[in-house]
Amino acid sequence: MRSYGVVSNTFYELKPASADYFSKVVGRKIWCIGPVPLCNRENTGKKSQRGKQSTIDENDCLKWLDSKQPDSVVYKNKEEEKEEWLPEGFEKRNEGRGLVIRGWAPQWLILDHEAVGGFMTHCGWNSILEGVAAGVSMVTWPVAFEQIYIESLVTEVLKIGTNVGVQKYVELMGDSIHREAIKKALIQIMVGDEAEEIRNRVKALARIARQALKEGGSSDSDLNALIEELSVRSLKLK
C-alpha cells in the first residue's frame, strides 16, 4: 500500500476498468507497457528463448507446425511435466497428428504460429497475455492462486475463451475434470459459429495490442510517461 505505482505487463485496452480503478479509486499510478512478448515478434530466436532453454529444437517445432492447416492445432501448457501423465502408447497412436514436448516448450514461438487456433491454459498471466498477443482462442483450466480470477476475465469479460468447469482449487492435483468436458470446451473454441466469434474477438484484441505498442499507442505513451516520471524524480533526488 506504500508503493508509488505499478508497472504492468498489459495494455490499457485489455483491462481499462481495472487500470482506471487503480489510478482513480486506489489513487496510485499505473503504467501499462505491454504486451512485452510482441517486442520480439519478428525475431524467431528471441521468441524461442522466453524463460528456460527449450527442450525441442525450434526448427523442428516450426517444421511440424508448418505442416498443419491454419487454426487447426491446440496447444496445452503444464507447469510440471512428468512422463507418467501420458497413457501408454499415446505418442505412437498420435504420431504425425500430435507433437509431445517434454519439459520447457518455446511457448511464444508456438502460439504465434498461424497453425495454432486454440490454447488450453492454466491461466497464468504471462500465458494469457501471450495468447491474446497471438490472437489465439483459449480453454481455461485454473489450478491455483489468482488464476480463477484471470479465467473470469478471459471467459466472462473479454469472451475470448471457454472453461472446462473447474469449481475449486486443489493445488497439487487440480480439480477432477471429465474428458467429455475437455472435448466440449475444445470443440467450442475450434469448430462452428461460436468458435468463429471467439476467434474474431481475440484476433481483434491482438490487433489492438500491436497498435498499443506503436508510436503514440497507449503502451508507448505509458512507457514514455514512466521514463519522464523517473527522470523528474531522479533530478529531485539530486
From TrEMBL:
**Superkingdom of origin:** Eukaryota
Q: Which family does it belong to?
A: Belongs to the UDP-glycosyltransferase family.
Q: Which UniProt keywords apply?
A: Glycosyltransferase, Transferase
Enumerate the Gene3D superfamilies for this protein.
Answer: Glycogen Phosphorylase B (3.40.50.2000)
InterPro entries in the record: UDP_glucos_trans
The record's section on Pfam families has: UDPGT
Read off the CDD domains from this record. GT1_Gtf-like (cd03784)
Recorded GO MF terms: UDP-glucosyltransferase activity
The protein in question is named: Glycosyltransferase
Q: What's the source species for this entry? A: Quillaja saponaria
